[in-house]
Amino acid sequence: MDATPPITAAAAPPAPRSLHRFANPGRFLRASGRVLPWLSAAAAGVLAAGVAWALAFSPPDWQQGETVRIMYVHVPMAWLAMGGYLALALASAAALVWRHPLADLLARELSPVGAVVTALCLATGSLWGRPMWGTWWVWDARLTSVLVLFFLWLGHAALVRAFDEPERGARAGAILALIGVVNLPIVKFSVDWWNTLHQPASVTRLGAPAMHVEMLYPLLVCALGFALAFAALVLARTRAAVMERRIRALELARARREERGMAA
Amino acid sequence: MTLHWAHVAASYALAALGLGALALGAWLRHRAARRRLAALDPRAAARDGAA
């Protein structure tokens, strides 16, 4: 009896299961097109609930009064500025080590969003500091290290766009992103290592958070909402960038065809 | 409106403006790219959900 198996679809090489499957632009566009509306709707819904909770239903602070409501914007922006930078570093490592083409585009589209989020963290912190500390700005370790983080985001966004060849810009940006990671523990532990005007961590610390649940829960809901909005923005920008790259390739191919036609 | 509420309102307004501007920019880029792609390669654009 002939034991040779028939040639079926099962005999074909298996589809890659890693993130490399999304290196195919068509596959990424199809997957992101399905995910993006749900992600955007979830972000809008969670943010609406979180902001309403923060502004109308959470109590004022016994010391700070109504000003504490700035926390529900400021703290999520600070977490996103740092978490987003970690994501930038991971995408940069993936781009450098595995040459993943989408990781390059993701890093390129992530940095403007990260810069805006970090700017919002600094601006809302300043608006919170004026009535509480009596000053808009102070050169303490936490504020200065977050300012450095903002410049790293801006530097990355500018550097990846500064070269005629996108690959060279992506590589330079990836190296900058990986070097900049050293600033993250400085931001996080600056309030412990130095004597700062900024208060120490009250949510992300070992042991229980030093915050009442009536403030902690709306803060976590706002943080989730802003994180979903951040993810939706980066996904939408990356999707647009994939389409723009495909447009450039198609236009280049068409120009070459026309050039050959004219030469013939 | 007290000084405190002015600062709270400014914080939320800045966040809404910043994220809103990013969302608008992404949507405009997306729409322009989708239209251009549909004109250049209608079959692929329809298949990939970019049309």
Automatic annotation (TrEMBL), chain A:
Pfam families: Cytochrom_C_asm
InterPro entries given in the database record: Cyt_c_assembly, Cyt_c_biogenesis_CcmC, Cyt_c_biogenesis_CcsA/CcmC
One GO process term, biological-process aspect: cytochrome complex assembly
Domain Cytochrome c assembly protein: 35-198
Keywords: Cell inner membrane, Cell membrane, Cytochrome c-type biogenesis, Membrane, Transmembrane, Transmembrane helix, Transport
Location relative to the cell: Cell inner membrane; Membrane
GO cellular component: plasma membrane
Coiled coil stretches, renumbered: none
Spans through the membrane: 35-57, 77-98, 110-129, 141-160, 172-195, 215-236
Topology with respect to the bilayer: Multi-pass membrane protein
A molecular function (GO) term: heme transmembrane transporter activity
Major subcellular location class: membrane
Family the UniProt entry places it in: Belongs to the CcmC/CycZ/HelC family.
Record function comment: Required for the export of heme to the periplasm for the biogenesis of c-type cytochromes.
Protein name per Swiss-Prot or TrEMBL: Heme exporter protein C
From TrEMBL, chain B:
Subcellular location: Cell inner membrane
Keyword field contains Hydrolase: no
Transmembrane residue ranges: 6-28
Xref: InterPro entries: Haem_export_protD_CcmD
Alphabetical keyword list: Cell inner membrane, Cell membrane, Cytochrome c-type biogenesis, Membrane, Transmembrane, Transmembrane helix, Transport
Protein task: Required for the export of heme to the periplasm for the biogenesis of c-type cytochromes.
UniProt-recorded name of the protein: Heme exporter protein D
Lineage: Bacteria, Pseudomonadati, Pseudomonadota, Alphaproteobacteria, Acetobacterales
